[in-house]
Design brief:
With 187 residues, this protein is mostly helical. It contains six helices and two strands; from the N terminus they run E-E-H-H-H-H-H-H. The longest helix is centred in the N-terminal third of the chain and has 22 residues.
Length: 187
């Protein structure tokens, strides 16, 4: 039979948290229940208030970050970020094919600053897209030293919910990378 906690026994170890806990109606300490907070909010109400406060804080942070309107420079900047993260190790930070990993490859990486020059002055947009997304076979890669970025980008997390990128998002990301490659072409 469970012991009944008596209010006068302050030395009893079961009474140490007396301010937070009260006993059940039958007086069983094994079934404690939390007392209502000082303001009288029930647990469900307190959870709802907390959720609303957190959501409001998130909206405030999003608003402070600025509008989601893209500027003309944004595609080049986000393309540059992807380039530096995923391409520069082989192609070099300036795109000339002299990255730190270049000497370890079977064939020297392409000088990406001369793509237009080698294509009669026009940037080979379709070919660049196919090479990046993996749909084009590149002889120099043999067994494909260059990763298939279309597959890699689709697996990378894009938001707090850890969902893979959609095909549309992957295409947009590759197009931003191509916009960056266009911006580094030698004149």
């Amino acid at each position: 039979m469970p012991a009944v906690i008596r209010a006068g026994k302050e030395s009893d170890p079961r009474m140490r948290n007396r301010k937070l806990l009260s006993t059940s109606r039958e007086g069983h300490p094994e079934k404690p229940r939390l007392r209502r907070a000082a303001r009288g909010l029930s647990r469900p109400t307190a959870i709802i208030v907390l959720a609303v406060a957190m959501a409001a804080a998130g909206v405030r942070i999003a608003c402070a970050a600025g509008p989601a309107v893209s500027s003309p420079a944004e595609p080049v900047l986000t393309g540059k970020t992807d380039y530096l993260l995923h391409c520069a190790s082989c192609h070099g930070t300036d795109g000339r094919g002299d990255g730190p990993v270049a000497d370890l490859l079977k064939q020297r990486p392409t000088d990406l600053t001369r793509l237009s020059e080698r294509n009669g002055g026009r940037f080979p947009e379709k070919r660049a897209f196919e090479v990046i997304d993996g749909s084009a076979v590149v002889k120099a890669h043999g067994t494909r030293d260059m990763p298939v970025w279309g597959e890699m980008f689709s697996v990378e997390a894009t938001n707090a919910f850890n969902r893979p990128q959609t095909e549309r998002e992957v295409r947009a990301r590759i197009e931003r990378l191509i916009d960056y490659l266009k911006s580094i072409q030698r004149k």
